[in-house]
Amino acid sequence: MESTERPTTSLRLEQFAVRPVLLIAAALFVLEMALSGRYGFHGDELYFLDAARHLQGGYVDQPILVPLLARASLSLFGVWLPGLRLWSALAVAATVITGGLLARELGGRRKAQVLAALATATMPAVLGTGDILETTTLDIMFWAALALVVARVGRTGDCRYWLLGGLVLGVGLANKHSIGFFAVAIFLGALFSGGSRLVLNRWAAGGAAIAACFTIPDMWWQATNGWPTIAMTQTLNQENGGLANISTWVIGQLLMVNIALAWVWIVGIRYLWRSDRPLWRALVWAYGLLFVLFALTTGAKSYYLAAGYVYLLAAGAVRLERWWAAHRVRSWLVAVATALTTALILPVVLPILPASDIAGLLAINAPLGEEVGWPEMVDTVGTVWFSLPPAQRANAVILTFDYSQAGAINELGPPLGLPTAVSAHNTEWFWGPGNANATTVVAWYPGNVDMTSEEAVADLSQYFLHVRVAATTSNSAGLHNQDWGGHVYVCTGLKHPWGTMWPMLRHYS
User: Fold this and answer.
1) Rounded CA Rg of the chain
2) Contact 198, 279 (CB under 8 A)
3) 464 by DSSP, 3-state: which?
4) Using CA atoms, how far apart are residues 366 and 349, in angstroms rounded to an integer?
5) Helix (H, G, I), strand (E, B) or coil at 213
6) Which residue, 111, 216, 301, 375, is the most exposed by fewest CB within 10 angstroms?
7) What pLDDT does residue 5 have?
8) How far apart are CA 29 and CA 356, in angstroms?
9) DSSP 414-448
10) CA 193, 196, 197, 198 torsion-angle sign
11) Exposed/middle/buried for residue 388 (C-beta within 10 Å: 0-12, 13-18, 19+)
């Protein structure tokens, strides 16, 4: 399978396999859109819609790009799930195309490009994120696009492409900060690989300046609000990092790629590492550096490095192209294995099965369960709200423990006549306590997945003399997700004025 020659490519690119790569991307787009309305909104999506109604320079959890896209969806489609998920379906399709282009840039011909596109399209991380509009969906696309620019500069030595790289990096930073770590890791990798000339020049500096311009709104918001993202990141690192989560991280990496093609990205590491092009080796350095960094700081969040496998799969596809042609029987066996494993993966990462049948999958893919039950739970909150006498409702607010619950009430509650809910979670806290003179608080806290009812009562009792359970949340699918078994509380006897207590309630996660 392997030869002793060092991988090199000429300056001439092979013809792009337009039809098959676009066909694969289109098939993935159609699949994602066909399933986009099968369950319901994910909690993060409800929060993004809420954020879209509060456009600002930055947010605790992410910069502004996803709220902007959510705002566009609201303007075009209203509160309509397929309209919101159009962006995520387009993003994963674009990622597949980028995977094919990466293989071409790394010297691959038609078969390598098709294999890279297929390998990308069947990644569980790509399939699953295409079902939800979230920052990770776009993050994978932007990382792959930046890797494509790096591969182009590495192949041609034309540093003017760093201006395009700066644009990609800038828009990526407007989506999620993690691509900044990728850019720094590539820079360090280039220095370690003897490619300083390619990254220490005016074009690279110009690209960095372009990228920095996109961060100005977010940096301004962070600076004027006490850098809350740093506080949130510290909390997340305490929850998800440390030595105890390293095994979770390592196992999680094996699940980022279709298991039948896991060996392809390993071949890709060797192909890039043995290249005579410093920037191609820098991509391996970037993967290794971030593997260690994320393993130590965010080990429980195994998807943080998912985007790296797009370019590693592309590199592996290039290296295996001749083997693929020379071993037709083995190639067909790999193709059959890929099809079978993809068929097994699909119901785990996408809403294919009835919601009542996915309880056993939540241990593997908990976010799938977070798409179930929001309208029913909002109805439960509405029942409690309207059970209060009108005079009491006039001086009451709805408080939720997290931003997903607040987003659910604020997006799904208006047709029921519910007021705007408030939450002290992450960015929602900055939008205020609602009626600062409220004397009654209807509080919705999650189920036993996040905290027990005893813990919820203890938390609320710090601020209220009287805490009464008024209802329990559930869903008709009988799915025990994170809000199953939660409670709606009626809280009275405030120990301090509501507006005065608001700063005490803030929490990050």
Assistant:
1) 24
2) yes
3) strand
4) 10
5) helix
6) 216
7) 37
8) 26
9) GGGTPPPPEE-BGGGGGG--SSTT-SEEEEEE--T
10) positive
11) middle
Q: Which long-range contacts (CB under 8 A, 24 or more apart) does 54-59 make?
A: 54/427, 54/431, 56/221, 57/217, 57/218, 57/220, 57/221, 58/217, 58/218, 58/219, 58/220, 58/221, 58/222, 58/229, 59/221, 59/426, 59/427
Amino acid at site 464: F
DSSP assignment of 121-134, as one string?
HT-HHHHHHTTS--
Report how many helices (DSSP H) and strands (DSSP E) the chain contains, helices first: 25, 5
Beta bridge partners of 264: none
CB 280 within 8 A of CB 151: yes
Starting at the earlier edge strand, list the strands of the sheet with 487-494. 422-423, 396-400, 440-445, 487-494, 464-472
Q: How far, in Å, CA of 453 to CA of 485, rounded?
A: 9
Residue 488 has what DSSP assignment?
E
Q: What is the pLDDT of residues 304-346, one digit of tens each?
A: 999 999 999 999 999 998 777 666 777 788 888 889 999 999 9
Number of Cβ within 10 Å of residue 229's Cβ equals 22
Q: Tell me the two tokens of residue 142.
A: 């932007």
pLDDT, position 158: 94
Dig out the tokens for 129 from the structure.
């994120």
Determine if the pTM surpasses 0.90: yes
Query: Could you tell me which of 435, 504, 447 has the C-alpha nearest to residue 479?
Result: 447
- When pLDDT is cut at 50, 70 and 90, the band that residue 2 belongs to is very low
Which helix (H) or strand (E) segment holds residue 141: the answer is helix 135-156
Residue 22 in tokens: 């676009």
Helix axes of 81-105 and 18-34: crossing angle, nearest 10 degrees:
160
Spell out the residues 6+ positions from residue 312 whose beta carbon is closer than 8 angstroms to its own. Answer: 265, 268, 269, 272, 283, 287
98 exposure class (CB count in 10 Å sphere: 0-12, 13-18, 19+): buried
Q: What is the pLDDT of residues 26-48, one digit of tens each?
A: 999 999 999 999 999 999 999 99
Angle of helix 43-52 relative to helix 81-105, nearest 10 degrees?
Answer: 100
The rounded distance, in Å, linking the Cα atoms of 117 and 338 is 13
Q: Which of 258, 280, 261 is nearest to 269 (CA)?
A: 280
Q: What angle do CA 258, 262, 267 make, to 5 degrees?
A: 145
Residue 390 contacts residue 354 (beta carbons within 8 Å): no
DSSP notation for 361-401? GTTT-HHHHTTSSHHHHHHHHHHHHHHS-HHHHTTEEEEES
Q: Which residue has the tokens 């993003």?
A: 91
